[in-house]
Amino acid sequence: MASEPHPLPSGGEILSALVHAVTGERPAPGTITARPAPVDPFTEAGAIVYEEPDVLTVSTNEARTLAGCKRRYFFEYKLGRRPREQGHEAVWGAALHRGLESYYRGMLEAAGYGVALDLRLAGRDMLDAALSPGVDSQGRPYEPPADPYARAALSAILRAYVEYWWTDATEYEVVAVELPFKLPIKTRLGRLIKGKLCEICQGEVKLWTCPVCSGAGRIRPMREGRIDLVLRERKGERRTWITEHKSTGWAPTDERYYAGIGQDLQIALYYDAAREMGLDPAGVMYDVIRRPDYDEVKPPPKMKLDGQPRAQKADVAYSNPRHGERPADYEERIYRLATGEETRSQWFGRRHLPITQKQVTSGREIMHNAVDEIRWRERSGHWPEIGDRYVCAAPRKVCPWLDVCEGRASAEDDRLFPLK
């Protein structure tokens, strides 16, 4: 009679024997169990769900807000609130950016299909994007300016912009439009910040890639942003320029607007990010666009002794709406000013800015310090007010959180401060 095969030892018996061989002690029965059989991770039973890691991400606006007022940073970036009422300048600037995004995206798509850009169709799509409600490139709802004079000024400036810079389609190649980036924050010397230990792999070297930290072992703080436009010259040295659209009340020819531009954190941060993404930019191009004074309607004309109104001069180059002027007439007047041979340089201008390594190093240091300060304040819960009335209530720039800080409103009032 054939003998039966000897039964294989269980997993628990094997582990118990190994412990006995190493330590000389035999564990009590039941204290060591075999590892469960592997489960196919592609089946529903074997699916492993990992929580999204809590990554500290800092943008240029966050760093600026933190430097300006700790309490405002807490309201906007920790509570996730924003004032419902936005300043008209911010609303108009966002609409201008949306229109220019549509224009240059159309240029990019035309190049992809190998066809020439139709300026008439591109201009129509640009106005439609800026003046119609919709969803922006980041998935957020977009509302255009409601004031009829603001809409008229926006339409006039966008039309004039295409006429002024129509040569962009022949002189530049559009590399990217609204280019987002999310990159690790570095020290001033270009080294990665240590970051906190990954809770899944605990920073150990493993044969598998951690789905949370991608095998890095640590969750590093990140810097993020969105570059308006990347252009590359078609001729000559074929240099690449990081382009930033800037709407302002200043004329582009006024040198006072460019005072302190070398201290701008955004251009240094974007330049450094573009280099890290392999774009090799030559510098930053400031695309300056003047904003008309659509919010300051001219007072009624003075009256003559006989009771008749004095005649208004037709050749005055002010951008305010005249008393009784219809929005359609105002739009055409601003368009003529922005395209006139003698006045158009007061509305559009570009300046190429080389970025030095000192600016890059300073930008890295600012972001690194912001991360350290945010971490400390999150642990301590210390978010003080700025304590400076000239910051909280500057002329024509009253902080929207002033009523909250003075106890007249709540930051959690959804009617005044909805969630982002």
Task: Describe, in plain words, how this protein is organized in 3D.
The termini are far apart. Helix 4 packs parallel to helix 6 (148-164) and helix 8 (265-276) packs across helix 10. Helix 8 (265-276) links the parallel strand 8 and strand 9 (283-290). The chain is α+β, with helices and mostly antiparallel strands and 420 residues long. The longest helix is centred in the first third of the chain and has 26 residues, at 88-113. The chain contains 12 helices and 12 strands. Helix content is 35%, strand content 15%.
Q: In which range does the helix fraction lie?
A: 25-40%
Largest sheet: 6 strands, mixed
As residue ranges, the low-confidence spans are 1-12, 30-47
Structural class: alpha+beta
Order of helices and strands: HEHHHHEEHHEEEEEHEHEHHEEH
Beta-strand percentage? 15-25%
Give the overall shape, derived from the CA principal axes.
Answer: globular
Helical segment count: 12
Average pLDDT figure: 83
Distance between the termini: 80 Å
Number of strands: 12
